[in-house]
From TrEMBL:
Keywords, in A-Z order: ATP-binding, Hydrolase, Nucleotide-binding
Keyword rRNA-binding: no
One Pfam family named in its UniProt record: CT_A_B
Species of origin: Mycolicibacterium septicum
PANTHER family, A to Z: 5-OXOPROLINASE SUBUNIT C
NCBIfam families registered for this protein in UniProt: urea_amlyse_rel
Name the UniProt record assigns to this protein: Biotin-dependent carboxyltransferase family protein
Carboxyltransferase domain ranges (all copies): 23-316
Length: 330
């Protein structure tokens, strides 16, 4: 077990989420940056779905009551154990009685703390992920508080005997540069936007607004226009309104043609705003690391290109796993 002596700004228990409940109106939740979450788990020998601590901007201070192995992956951040510095993307041992402190992120927005065996809170619909809006998952369905006790489980992976000092190569880590290109496939209501506005969307830079969170990221940029129409029954008079439709994760809606909103893992599952496109699965992790005033450029891709990008992301994660396995042989 471990005790939270300082919770950080908004630290949540997250695993890979609870997919399969969209019909109930329940989003999947789960780690916003799934690649970094998986990497942190691999570094300590966990199953990739083991629950980690998702840090937003400012990390927690944790006191360990038992010996453990931990790793932090994601944005660039200072890590100390009893005041001694350690590197992210690297596994390290923490002894009973020692204190792990994760500082303020210098780049990126989120980091993930994996503890060998995983955080062992009670699952809800098969997942320990915290969904704050409905107060489910994690601890009390809320962010961590001072004094919380976190149980540790035994959700190990195939390579459970990872030791301290295992490192994920820098070339395999995401680059948090502050300016990003995000790939998008055509949305269900792409036809509602004027052709010149579609061109604008895919050529103009957008800036991340401070009004962004796990539900959705709001972006500031040029206003977009819509094709003239007579509003169908069930849709509002506003040109951005449509008859209700489902929102795939990563959908980009543009209410009033102003300030696109990319819907993320805690977003509503449907609504009545036109969606110009959907961020591909392989690039959703980028949104988990955006912070104001980062810059985003959108690039249109085909469905086949999106599937190829997903395969490439899987190969990259497999390369991480193989590299760590080789480290344990020496």
């Amino acid at each position: 077990m471990l005790t939270v002596t300082a919770p950080g700004a908004h630290t949540l228990i997250q695993d890979l989420g609870r997919p399969g409940h969209y019909a109930l109106g329940l989003p999947p939740s789960g780690a916003l940056d799934q690649f970094s979450h998986r990497c942190a788990n691999l570094l300590v020998g966990n199953d990739e779905n083991a629950a980690t601590l998702e840090i937003t901007m400012v990390g927690p201070t944790l006191e360990f009551t038992t010996d453990s192995c931990v790793a932090v992956a994601g944005g660039d951040v200072d890590i100390t154990v009893d005041g001694h510095p350690h590197q992210p993307w690297t596994s390290l041992n923490v002894s009973a009685g020692q204190v792990l402190h994760v500082g303020v992120l210098r780049s990126g927005c989120r980091a993930y703390v994996a503890i060998r065996g995983g955080i062992d809170t009670t699952p809800f619909l098969g997942s320990r992920s915290t969904y704050v809006s409905s107060a489910i998952g994690g601890l009390r369905g809320a962010s961590l508080r001072t004094g919380d006790i976190l149980p540790v489980g035994n959700l190990y992976g195939h390579h459970r005997h990872m030791g301290p000092g295992c490192v994920i190569e820098p070339r395999l880590r995401p680059n948090h540069s502050g300016e990003y290109t995000v790939r998008v496939v055509e949305g269900l209501c792409h036809y509602r936007f004027a052709r010149d506005s579609v061109t604008t969307f895919f050529t103009a830079p957008y800036t991340v607004s401070s009004e962004s969170d796990r539900t959705g990221y709001r972006l500031q940029g040029p206003a977009l226009g819509f094709v003239d129409r007579e509003a169908p029954f069930g849709a509002g008079e506003n040109p951005s309104n449509v008859v209700d439709l489902g929102y795939p994760m990563g959908s980009i809606q543009i209410p009033n043609g102003e300030e696109p909103i990319c819907l993320l893992r805690d977003a509503v599952t449907g609504g009545g705003y036109a969606t110009i496109g959907t961020v591909i699965t392989a690039d959703l992790d980028i949104f988990g690391q955006l912070r104001a005033p980062d810059v985003v450029h959108f690039r249109p891709v085909s469905l086949e290109e999106a599937l190829q990008a997903r395969r490439e992301r899987s190969r990259r994660l497999k390369e991480v796993e193989v590299g760590l396995r080789l480290l344990t042989l020496y």
